[in-house]
Amino acid sequence: MTPRSHAFGLLLVAWDGTSLNLADSPANAEAFGRPSCKKGEAGYPQSRVVVLMTCGSRRIMDAVFGTHRASERALAEQMLPALKAGMLLLADRGYPSYRLWCAAQATGADLLWRAAADRHLPVQRVLPDGSYLSRLTNPADSHRQANRGGRSREAGRVPPAPLQPRGPVVRVVEAVITVCTSDGTIRTGHYRLITTLLDPKSAPARELAATYAR
Question: Which of 82, 97, 112 is the last residue of a domain?
Answer without folding.
Answer: 112
